[in-house]
Amino acid sequence: MTKNRYSSTSSKWTGMVPVDDTALAVTDTGGPGIPVVYLNGQFATQGYWRRVIAELGTEWRHITYDERARGRRSKRSADYSFEAAVRDVDAVLSARGVDRVLVVGWSYGAFVAAHWASRYPDRTLGAVMVDGAQPYDWLDEAMEQRIRKTFRRLNLFMPLLRPTGLTPRMTAAQMADSNIELGRLARERELGPVLDDITVPARYVVASGTSLGSKGDEQERIRAGLDEVVARNANIKISAKVASNHGAILKKDSPAVAEAVREVAALDRGRR
């Protein structure tokens, strides 16, 4: 893992990476180890990954960043689309001189990781998707209205939390639009072909039960959509189904996520 097969930098770097009309707050631990880029949940920050990073340790090169208008330092933008999120991965990796990377994404970030791995196999060592990127047609007109109503309600107190970085500096309408776009991307006819096209080692770590915003067995039905994905594509497997729910998985089951990263890295080495 410490051979010169990977792009490396000798020391830790923290700074801003310009992209399009904005700039992203990035942290790169440096070192000669396998580079891993961590892709956040839709409105989460890079701090969510600290337990996974601690589990993996210093033999890896960890790259984290806050998406547009997330966290305390990343700047606002006129574009919060999913395609912008995919472009941001390239901007961060290019700025840090990384050619090939292992992508790890949670929730919304899992969709970004899946698309990145599907589009850029030559630049991807492998992918780990944490309770996200599960094809299921959950968005309909009633759900869209439910999403918009939820974010209008949340907007009553979100401005109080924005200075802390705990909520994004986006309007309620922008956050709702992002969530609705994700629902469209999650449809079987949209996400299924993306997953089918993944040719690098890919692993899922799946949560259990419900979490904020879900009802009944909604999330378990969504997760069940992975069965057909695994059956169709031999490169994709479920590494673990853990006890914690969607919101707590990075905190409570970081060892399972770290183990999936190790598993994917070992498979990449086996291909060479």
Structure commentary:
- The chain is an alpha/beta fold and about 270 residues long.
- Helices cover about 40% and strands about 20% of the residues.
- It is built from 11 helices and 8 strands.
- The protein has helices at about 50-55, 80-95, 110-120, 140-155, 160, 170-185, 190-195, 220-225, 225-230, 250, 255-270, and strands at about 15-20, 20-30, 35-40, 60-65, 100-105, 125-130, 200-205, 235-240.
- The chain has an 8-stranded mixed beta sheet, sandwiched between helices.
- A hairpin with a 2-residue loop joins strand 1 (about 15-20) and strand 2 (about 20-30).
- Helix 1 (about 50-55) crosses helix 11 (about 255-270), helix 2 packs across helix 3 and helix 4 packs antiparallel against helix 6.
- The protein starts with 12 loop residues before the first strand and ends with a helix.
- The model has no long low-confidence stretch (mean pLDDT about 90).
List the helices and strands and how they pair.
Elements: E1 13-19, E2 22-28, E3 35-39, H1 50-56, E4 61-65, H2 82-95, E5 101-106, H3 108-119, E6 124-130, H4 141-154, H5 158-161, H6 172-185, H7 188-196, E7 202-206, H8 218-223, H9 226-232, E8 236-241, H10 249-252, H11 254-270
Parallel strand pairs: 3-4, 3-5, 5-6, 6-7, 7-8
Antiparallel strand pairs: 1-2, 2-4
Helix pairs in contact: 1-11, 2-3, 4-6
